[in-house]
Amino acid sequence: FATAKQQGKGSYAAGMASSPCGNSNFDSGLEIKTRSVEQTLIPLVSQITTLINHKDKPKKSERTLAAIHRVGQAVSVAVGRFVTVGEAIATENQELKDEMGQACFEARRAGDAIAQLTDVGSALPSQSDGRVTVFSDRTGMVKAARLLLSSVTKVLVLADRIVIKQIITSRNKVLVTLDHLERVSTFQEFVQIFSQFGNEMVEFAHLTGDRQNDLKDEKKKARMAAARAVLEKCTMMLLTASKTCLRHPDCESARINKDAVFHRMRCALEQVIEIVTEARSCGENKILPASIYNGIKDFKVGVECLRENLYSLSPQSMGSQLEALVERTEDFTDSAYTSHEQRQAILGLCQLARQDTQQLVNAWVEAQSLHAKEATEDMEVAILKTCQSISDLRRELHKVAVIRASDLLKVHGEQLPLRALKAAGAEGNLEAMAEYSRKLTEQKEQLVETCRLLCHVSGTEPLEITCVHAEETFHVIGPQIISAAQTLALHPSSKIAKENLEVFCEAWESQLCDMALLLREINDIFEGRRGTFFHPLFPQKHSANLKTAKAVKLDAEEQTSMAKLGLELRLLSSDVDTEVEKWEEQEHDIVRQSQSLASMAYNMYLFTRGEGLLKTTLDLFHQAEVCASISANLLFAPPSVLFFLLFYRSCKCICCFIKHKT
């Protein structure tokens, strides 16, 4: 169905591509929420605008008349093709049959009307200058255009429901398999079901990735990205946590660790569905808490509006707004990690803002008593002072949050508690493990609080959502690391328990890296520039092979095949990380090459999800060639790493796949 829909959109747009896209507003009575629907309508709007504008001049040359006729016929033909696809959709989806059928009928009727209105046969020759007068019913053309745009939009919006239905169906399949995974009791059963789960997660990741890129609302895109990030990281956690629980079925900490992963995955799956269906949940308010940045922005807008309208709000409401804003700064001033100097600076600026606002209120009340129609000179001065003091407060809060985050990242970048926890667990030292667990918990609380402060000064709603996601991630992963460490301490010789702890520690380290990028983005926003992060691509080796391939576009089936290869590489990269730790000589060439291979495999996996550094299939081809070459060099390594043969096979499959497409 998705292929049919895309073909319909493609042929429809192709029929409209002869004119440049213009801007035109129309009332379809339907809200357009995705970019694909919007982009599909742009050529149609352009063509319709051209036809309506030509109706203003009844007399036209034969050349102009022929052009109008071609445009009208192109619209009619393209609408006919489009409606054919819509009718096929209606046949395959009985729940939409009536609505889609009516919309298709209206679209076809409007297309026929436009073709008739632009028909050369309706033109009459002029007696005076020999030019041709076209039927000039501009009202009829406008009416037909509105009907066409409304009906076509409705067809597209109805078709979009099928995409949502696909996502929901995919989610339901994942949930069912997730339930089976949670109840397995043997390794053999687990491996079989996890393989199915992996395929279903690949499908779900593609559907939700496409949806995320298609959404117009930046807040929804950010929430979708956060939920998908949770699912991606939890997939590896689920693998190792489940294996640990199967290996140590009587271990309470292993069960707690596993249950937390399953719970978080279900929550993320539910959040995705809330976004695509726009369902309102009780957790909606938790996603975007009231931030100081938004409070300051709203307060300044209210203050500056007084220049135009002295009665736009009341003095009491302005005072209440300021006090609510000052109350939010308590997240900074009440923190045990805020220095005395920083606390005093914030309190001083809050007091200054109160004083300047009170002076504004006094001048405002006086102006109202004089029945002034606009801001007086005293009011203008007070407005400027109030805006300045509130901006100074924002600047100080931003500085405090950024300094706090930067200092934390420097301190925690060494990962001392994590290293100590791993060592204590491997030694079975429960007392040391408890001590370092307390230190990790304190670190977690610092990071959670810092993410909350960054949320206050983030500058945009999508970044606020990212800050909330970071806060929740640290809050959840901290206890999971501790439960994984407890399991290892109880079973210090367990390789799977050690691997499980390593996976959770990697997730923690990954979130610290994400926090550093987030901090940079917030700084860029504050300084008036959008954050753009440049990451150099991998070394340009084996360039000769690039001549045999080029960037290509994959259809849905090919994307699924590629995604399965990507997931296989992701799981293999995890095995590599486990194997290289066994080597005593960590500077050994095999270890370095193995780590490089794992990194490249992970980036190829990200490409199959529409993310990461690789942007085109050409980039993927180049990366796969390099990866295959390294794998080939490692085929004669000791037996413990002979699974590099699997790497080689997967990478060569990708290369052959792209060459075949070329």
UniProtKB/TrEMBL annotation:
PANTHER family: ALPHA-CATULIN (PTHR46342:SF1). One of its GO terms (molecular function) is actin filament binding. One of its GO terms (cellular component) is cytoplasm. It comes from the Eukaryota. This is Alpha-catulin. It is found in: Cytoplasm. It comes from Sander lucioperca. Keywords: Cytoplasm. Belongs to the vinculin/alpha-catenin family. GO terms for biological process: cell adhesion; Rho protein signal transduction. Pfam families: Vinculin (PF01044).
